[in-house]
Amino acid sequence: MILTVATRSGQGQNSGFTRARCYKPCAMSSAAAVTSGPVRIDVVDLCDRYDGFLLDAYGVLIDGHGALPGAAEFLAELARRGRPYLIVTNDASRRRETNAARLRGFGLDVAPEQILSSGHLIAPYFAAHGLAGARCFVLGTDDSRSLVAEAGGLVCDIDPAGVYDAVVACDDAGFPFLEGLNAALSAVFRAFDEGRAPHLVLPNPDLVYPAGGGNYGFTSGAIALLLEDALARRYPDRRPVFTRLGKPYRPLFDEAARRLSGKLVMIGDQLETDIAGARAAGIDAALLLTGVTRRPEPSGAADEVVPTYILDRLAD
């Protein structure tokens, strides 16, 4: 096992992470890590090895209560080294300006242009499918509805008798939950019964998120599973499903790679979204053990998701 230790050195603006000692050199390449299992690493090695960083938000930088330990120091260290980063998040409940202001309120120095969310994939999807002016049923916040409107959709009121061209499940908050789910189910059933097939769009495929204090919550991916299961029972020959835009699917990672150059690494807390998506996109990935996923025991299965690295924390 590789064990590395990092400490803080220096004072003021020029202070940064330096190595106190390394019990065994962390010299294994990422290719070797894939074949022999993940390497335990620290933030010093990551900063040394990579040109750019993709960071999940919940479980990596923040939880529902605020910034996680080491998050502010880690972002400051990336800035000190001139390492660009993007916060690549499945959060489709906030515009990037809202998200950046929230993170700054948690003490994290993040600019809006450093945030890439799944909500910003709604516009390319609408453009590709000719949905300008489409009547949209949006499950989400005011910012979610704003993202759909900016994509060209006509955001309509929640109405079980309404006629919709698209159902966009962005978040679990911002609407009357049970009333909204029942209305969406009724409207979608009616559409398929009448021979119409509304677009089912899921910007955020996450099932759960860390709410802080050891608590967790369901999010829009769980909502989509409920609706999909109901649709499968009513239409077993068709089994309509949502189109998933965010992690672990390629669009978000492709856009991140377009914005940042050089050798990239993704730091995330969920194997099924952050790690699986990055590895499928050819990007190295570090599983941070401060969020949803605890280090799994290797199963040896052919489809097992294996991170490049295991990262215990962002900073000591």
Radius of gyration, whole Å? 21 Å
How is the main sheet built?
A: 7 strands, parallel
CATH architecture of the largest domain: 3-Layer(aba) Sandwich
Strand order of the largest sheet: 3-18-17-16-4-7-8
Q: What count of domains describes the coordinates?
A: 2
Ends apart, CA distance between termini: 19 Å
Could you report the average pLDDT, rounded to the nearest whole number? 85
Fold-level CATH name of the largest domain: Rossmann fold
CATH superfamily of the largest domain: HAD superfamily/HAD-like
Structural class determined from secondary elements: alpha/beta
Strand content: 15-25%
Percent helix, as a range, is 25-40%
Low-confidence runs (pLDDT<50, min 5 residues)?
Answer: 1-15, 17-35
What is the number of beta strands? Answer: 18
- Specify the overall morphology: elongated
Task: Count up the helices.
Answer: 10
Order of helices and strands: EEHEHEEEHEHEHEHEEHEEEHEHEHEE
Provide the CATH top-level class of the largest domain.
Alpha Beta
